[in-house]
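User: Second chain of the day. Same drill as before.
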Amino acid sequence: MTPPLPPGFAFARSWLDRADSLRGDARALAAAWRQARVMVVDAQGRAAGDGSGPLALEASALAPELPPQALLLGLAGDGQAWFALPAEGLDLPGSPAWIDLRQAAVQWEAAAAAAFAHARGMLHWHARSRHCGACGAPVRLQRAGYQGLCSGCGIEHYPRVDPAVIVAVSDGQRLLLGRQPGWPPRRWSVLAGYVEPGETLEQAAAREVHEESRVRLRACRYLASQPWPFPGALMLGFLALAEPDAPQVDGELEDARWFDRDEVGAALARDESSAEGWLLPPPLSIARALVAHWHAHGLEGLAAP
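Assistant: Same format as last time:
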């Protein structure tokens, strides 16, 4: 059996029950709003808050009644409801500080950062879905922000999530890593790409790895996932056994090559601020967890067909 992926990467835990049963209950939502707390997110995807956590605003102080654009994030363990609102048009008290999602992932308690990721992804969908893609008429939000209804043709719209595979590829002794042209100097990571229509996750993993490096996969196995709301991806982490092919890149990657276990171990131990050596993705990413998993366990539990 393949060992589980170690915890620690961002956005994978939340302290809120998403409370699907409340979404269609207008009376219960209105009652919940009166005692609720609100996370506010601006047009740049930043939350009102600081390094210690989000600014927990009283819902009734922002609006006496539940606004149509309010998104129900869920219920905390004590039953208190949390909502999210876009900052546009709100009269916020004082001059709040703003923090972006990557900063929050490093500085906030993990569950609060996950709630922020939830809010950011959903509010981004709201902002990009104001008109129907079929007829162009305005879309009205309903079910506490989880469904849009076209006012013209009546089509229902739902949040979009873009699945992407991210793969720790090994030939049994070495790990395949690549570099994209726009990355910071010395940064290397595992390979990744979006799933296409009509494709299984395993097929997507094999296709993306071969397209980017010309390395052929023999077998792969799912390990874990991470919401990645930049703006709306879901990263699906895999471990894969590959042929020991020489990597070749054709533009999508700047470079790709095999790294041995000692090289990977040194990079895992290297501080992000180090001026020497190559760097792995930061700990907030599932990419780092995949690399650490391979370094600790190799291809344990993954058999070739």
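The two ends are 15 Å apart (CA to CA).

User: Great, on to the next one.
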